Amino acid sequence: MTKAEFLHDLRRRLKALPPSEQSYALAYYEEYLEEAGPAGEQAAIAALGSPAQVASEIIGEYAIKQTGPQKQAGSDKQADSGGLKTLWIVIIAVLASPIALPLAIALLVVVFSLLFSVFALYLALFITAIAMAASGIAMAGIAAFGMVVAPAEAAFVLGLGLTSLSLGAALFIFSVWISRLTIKGATWLFAKLLKRKGGQS
User: Which of 48, 110, 173, 199 is 20 to 30 A from 140 via CA?
Assistant: First the structure.
């Protein structure tokens, strides 16, 4: 494999990364191979490993960097979108990494089973939170109309309604927080796996 072939293959495997990350990585390896010179080019390529291995390590490092402490920039929505995008990049890279086909298939099944289970759990939490909040609002409305007829009972219903509303809001906030934490943890785990596979293959 020549330097041009190595860099072309590497560029193709890094397409999922942001353009700035692609440019930085390609510039680094191009400079590395240029320093080796024509005489040492093949030895340098052999020492690096295949473009697939190098791409796995680069994407793994990128994902780990993305899941580390981040600067306070952008909205929460943008942060969530970035986390999901990073997780998706890592999943694609893991499945495309140079590992045995049976292992890749097994990993595919495990990854999507896990993601489906987590999605179902969080969907249930969100629905429960919304239902509790909605029932709390409904009970508060009923209590407001009943204040004239039966103040004591209405006050009791109002208390139940406000409690339900508070619990629903708290559950919703918890669901958002735990979903973000799960996305971050899954991205970090898959990135570590990707780096390890890239280095061992």
Answer: 173
Q: How far apart are CA 124 and CA 101, in angstroms?
A: 35
Domain range summary for the chain, segments of one domain joined by +? 74-200
Q: Are 90 and 192 in contact (CB under 8 A)?
A: no
Contact assessment for residue 130 and residue 164, using Cβ atoms and an 8 Å cutoff: no
Confidence of residue 193 (pLDDT cuts 50, 70, 90): low
Span 119-132, pLDDT tens digits: 788 888 889 988 98
Torsion of CA 177, 182, 188, 191, to 10 degrees: -140
What does the pLDDT average to over 25-39?
Answer: 88
- Using DSSP, state whether 27 is helix, strand or coil: helix
Number of C-beta neighbours around residue 69 at 10 A: 4
Find, among 35, 90, 82, the residue nearest to 58 by Cα: 90
The pTM of the full predicted model, rounded to 2 decimals, is 0.49
